[in-house]
Amino acid sequence: MRHFTSVYDLPDLNEALKTAFEVKKNPFAYQHLGKNRTMILIFFNSSLRTRLSTQKAAMNLGMNTMVLNVNQDGWQLESELGVVMDGDKPEHLREAIPVIGSYCDIIGVRAFAQFKSKEDDYQEKIINQFVEYSGVPVVSMEAATRHPLQSFADHFTIEEFKTKEKPKVVLTWAPHPKALPQAVPNSFVEWIRQADYELVVTHPEGYELAPEFMGDIKVEYDQKKAFSGADFIYAKNWASYSSYGQVLSRDRNWTVDEEKMALTNQAKFMHCLPVRRNMVVSDGVIDSPDSIVIQEAANREVSAQAVLKMILEELK
Amino acid sequence: MRHFTSVYDLPDLNEALKTAFEVKKNPFAYQHLGKNRTMILIFFNSSLRTRLSTQKAAMNLGMNTMVLNVNQDGWQLESELGVVMDGDKPEHLREAIPVIGSYCDIIGVRAFAQFKSKEDDYQEKIINQFVEYSGVPVVSMEAATRHPLQSFADHFTIEEFKTKEKPKVVLTWAPHPKALPQAVPNSFVEWIRQADYELVVTHPEGYELAPEFMGDIKVEYDQKKAFSGADFIYAKNWASYSSYGQVLSRDRNWTVDEEKMALTNQAKFMHCLPVRRNMVVSDGVIDSPDSIVIQEAANREVSAQAVLKMILEELK
Amino acid sequence: MRHFTSVYDLPDLNEALKTAFEVKKNPFAYQHLGKNRTMILIFFNSSLRTRLSTQKAAMNLGMNTMVLNVNQDGWQLESELGVVMDGDKPEHLREAIPVIGSYCDIIGVRAFAQFKSKEDDYQEKIINQFVEYSGVPVVSMEAATRHPLQSFADHFTIEEFKTKEKPKVVLTWAPHPKALPQAVPNSFVEWIRQADYELVVTHPEGYELAPEFMGDIKVEYDQKKAFSGADFIYAKNWASYSSYGQVLSRDRNWTVDEEKMALTNQAKFMHCLPVRRNMVVSDGVIDSPDSIVIQEAANREVSAQAVLKMILEELK
């Protein structure tokens, strides 16, 4: 594997899962792979889990790491071609990216959807420039439309916790005060479609995800019907895709609470975090023994390490 | 030792001092202890000495380190339970802490008094949540009411510089333009009470420290009387505890100057730094050969390394 | 070599170049030199290339690194002596510098010209205090009047790309929306004067550099004449030295474009980056095969590693 920006970059999903189980069992067994290798983690946006888990994963593999918070440590970067740069952006990605690539062996990059233009976001203008110009492997630490390290950790976590061959997995929209990108739900649906699970998506009307991510997955607009018999409830807010970037509802009837969880097959509760308590999920649910959000977050180190291991193995 | 949040966490103060002398002599002799161990340093507040000295101490011991500036790198964290999180804090400590704990072996945390509520500050709401929820050892890098790594370095420095068995050590309040927490003086008094020194505290009326830290130590309200015959002068500003968080005086008659130092037994001058020159202490005193503020600060690496060594030795 | 703040600190320029070629060929061959050594990189100003390349160079040599962004991670530092510190700067360089020095073996420091006073800037008040007070070797990561790691990389890059013994090297001023320091052009002229090249400087009237950097180098005010037959074009904006810190011209007739490059001996195009496209240089020139700005930036790792290697070899 060269780059990692979606599930489609994996040569083989089952092999990737096997690698994840291996590195979880023996995190320090592969340090020869990372010796004298350096990963630079570039953040256009804030990060807690991704920052720490990816850096930890790289260090587990014996790599050196450097972190760059673009807008704080450096300066704003221009991404449009052909402009006269007389404004507030002193450097172009066209220079910054290959320069950063020259100082490292792998780049991790986080660049959220900006909600200024659906086209720009869904063309993945920033991460694609990294892939094109950096000269080194690029790992998405959440791009405009996908968060594949999260989805990989989610899949791995379901594998760890499932008690039947083909569990029912429900992705449910939940309310939130602000407009959030579709990266996590897009990526979750795209990824979990590759697994042999029963996948159901539920959300209010107007929150349909982009068709290229949904494929043939049907929406169940009745949240309670969707929850019925579920083995895993994956909650997440996102802003509208069709009315791009808009918050159409903050309806707390969609909050995941104990009453709804009672409709499930004692489902495990999942969320990528950070989560707004008592908006997205009630205290009672997230604090219950069936909540596996911490284990899920801990597995971010595992998915990152599996990805980095696969990339390092192909570096010459 | 599991956690380090006050002098009371040490199994034995004299053994701890001995460990400090050992690691100062041979800082790189214990790298097997930290191999494949990671420390995360979390800052809710700015830091210079603590940031660098603690990170250096961990690296001396062979550990990997990661630094998280909560409000810059990540986002604001909610600390109250039961709230509907529809405001500007996107994540709760109840999730953030165990997640961070899952990526490391030791957490260092800095969370100052916020001066909004004496009760909240003196209950140590933040660091106590770290101890309760993180699942790993927690080291205070200055909490609301104590700064034990500083006090340990202070004690160690006095041991290095003392020329008699039982020196007279004076903690003196000094003026400052802003309201500062009581963590350093609280912690200093609490810690030095455990040593067999003659300890005197001097400050203007209204600046009495909390009784649980003072114990049976008496206040000498006349600063000059307090200085008489002193072997160590430890200067520090703090805001009022009784009129909580208020600046009752900026009286530069309390500034430590050459005239007052002349009353001492050629006392060494100490301060935890950062220090406001010509407010807290005159240029003449801090630039004199009897000023040991730099050596004291250098010993922050030593106290941090001794603490980390003791914790690593008990990690399985 | 003890400190590195200008070309004059090098014991021998040719030996330094030889060291640079060595470390480029074998970046990981000298890790015994950096074992248990720590470099602290201190930034008073933003940085991208310098931050990453210097950290990378130190890690190549087996060193540990710590990064301090003074104004974000810590707090503002007072640099004037004798003041009553009752304002917004809680710590003096007089304490901060030796304390930082006590936690490391080498300090890198970036402190730009502040454009408040030509005298203060040209006396290099900040970096000189680091040299004086830190107790450890100091490496300039761009000071008020010089950027020697950049100039070293520039010289090395010309050596790599030159096709004749004595190439014609042209430093040309170019327009920019904001006032930039003279550090890069000062340092470039001062350094390249030591090499056996034909050096020409061209800029509009009013942009004369300080005489101590120019020495006997003559200015060619006609940019096209200067470009004629050039082998290397080094573009850079700077604010006026005589009308200190002022932008006297934003005349895009000085922009380096294809038409002007056609006057040269198929010159290589250089710039220290970040560069404003279509202000300083046209897209056509910087995207042409003769643009070597990325290779030049990549060589920042090489010059930094050569400097650190020379310093480490003299550390006891």
TrEMBL record, chains A, B, C:
What residues does carbamoyl phosphate bind to? S47, L48, R49, T50, W75, R110, H147, P148, L149, Q150, C272, L273, R300
Q: Per UniProt, which keywords does this protein have?
A: Amino-acid biosynthesis, Arginine biosynthesis, Transferase
The GO terms describing molecular function are: amino acid binding; ornithine carbamoyltransferase activity
Name the pathway it acts in.
Amino-acid biosynthesis; L-arginine biosynthesis
Example of a GO biological process term: L-arginine biosynthetic process via ornithine
Q: Which InterPro entries does the record match to this protein?
A: ArgF'-like, Asp/Orn_carbamoyltranf_P-bd, Asp/Orn_carbamoylTrfase, Asp/Orn_carbamoylTrfase_sf, Asp_carbamoyltransf_Asp/Orn-bd
Positions of the Aspartate/ornithine carbamoyltransferase Asp/Orn-binding domain: 184-310
In terms of Pfam families, this protein maps to: OTCace, OTCace_N
Residue positions binding N(2)-succinyl-L-ornithine: E142, H176, K236, R276
Q: What class of enzyme is it?
A: transferase
All copies of domain Aspartate/ornithine carbamoyltransferase carbamoyl-P binding, residue ranges:
2-160
Top-rank taxon: Bacteria
Reaction catalyzed: N(2)-succinyl-L-ornithine + carbamoyl phosphate = N(2)-succinyl-L-citrulline + phosphate + H(+)
This enzyme's EC code(s): 2.1.3.11
Purpose: Catalyzes the transfer of the carbamoyl group from carbamoyl phosphate to the delta-amino group of N(2)-succinyl-L-ornithine to produce N(2)-succinyl-L-citrulline. Is essential for arginine biosynthesis.
Report quaternary structure and partners.
Homotrimer.
Q: Which HAMAP family match?
A: SOTCase
Which family does the record claim for this protein? Answer: Belongs to the aspartate/ornithine carbamoyltransferase superfamily. SOTCase family.
This protein is called what? N-succinylornithine carbamoyltransferase
Q: What lineage does UniProt assign to this protein's organism?
A: Bacteria, Pseudomonadati, Bacteroidota, Bacteroidia, Marinilabiliales
